[in-house]
Structure formats: structure tokens, C-alpha cells
Amino acid sequence: MLLKPNPENHCFGCGGANPRGMKLAFEQIDESRRIRGVFRIGPEYQGGPGFVHGGIVATLLDEVMAKVSRFEKDYAVTGELAIEYVKPIPVGEELTVEGWEVQRNGRMRIRQGEIRNSSGTLLARGSGKFVEVDPERFRRAAAEQKQSGT
After folding, report:
1. What pTM, to 2 d.p., does this model score?
2. C-alpha span between 99 and 108 (Å, rounded)
């Protein structure tokens, strides 16, 4: 199942309403309970000359791990994120980003993710703790923040 950017979502990574966002689309693979995306990151997202910025690498991994919530239809936000930058990632190279869950404990979700090139070489990996939240409460808090201008 293809997970396209939501045209009403302003998320920098996966939202469709952010004109400066990445508009990342992912695939939900039910058999393996993994989320996967295939991307080419352009020069507008580079750090050092010719290489993808480390913050963008972290964004890719955060997004793919967050999308794992789709399998349980829950809503979890990033509580902790750790990234291991294994090799520099060249701009324009085809990348496969994959995320999956390794543990659930109450509201806590432990997830992992990887970025590999088209040859299968590991370029970066991440792990994260995601905390399940009440989506209505989360939306109300966001609306209140928007109204207060903070």
C-alpha cells in the first residue's frame, strides 16, 4: 500500500501542504510489517559538497520509523532518536529507507531503520523510542498552540 503525502499535513518530511517540505511517500509492506521508501535526495538537501546533510538523513530515518504506527493504527511521536552515520550519502544516489518495530512496552514503541544504496550497502541506521499519544488530545494541543501564535 502506498502512503502518499497528506495534502493537509504541514509536516516537513511527509506532509503535502508544506511548500518547503520533502513530501516523502512510503510503501507499507504488510507481509514483513515494514515501511519502505525509495528516494533520490537532491542538492537542495546537501550538507558538505555533494553529500546529503546529516539532519536530512535523520529526518528520513525518523519518518520511516514513525510510519510503522500504521500497522497498529496508533499514533506515536518521537521520544528519542539515535542515528549512526555509517558512510557519507552522495546527493542524487538512489536510496532505500526501511523501518520496522522491534519491541512494544505499554505506550513505548522501539523501532529501527536503515538507509541503503542500490547495491545494498548500509549507509546509515537509526533507532528510536516512539511514545503512543491520544491523537485527539495531540490535535487539540496543536490547534491551541496555533491560536496562541506560539
Report:
1. 0.90
2. 16
pLDDT digits over 23-48, tens only?
999 999 999 999 999 999 999 999 99
Dist CA 122 CA 66 (whole Å): 20
All structural domains of the chain with their residue ranges: 2-148
Q: Strand 122-132 to strand 34-40: parallel, antiparallel, or no bridges (unpaired)? A: unpaired
CATH superfamily assigned to domain 2-148: Hotdog Thioesterase (3.10.129.10)
Q: Tens digits of per-residue pLDDT, 74-107? A: 889 999 999 999 999 999 999 999 999 999 999 9
* Cell output for 19: 511548500
Q: Find out whether 47 and 59 touch, Cβ atoms under 8 Å.
A: no
Tell me the three-class secondary structure of the chain, residue by residue: CEECCECCCCCCCCECCCCCCCCCCEEEECCCCEEEEEEECCHHHECCCCEECHHHHHHHHHHHHHHHHHHCCCCEEEEEEEEEECCCCECCCEEEEEEEEEEEECCEEEEEEEEEECCCCEEEEEEEEEEECCHHHHHHHHHHHHHHCC
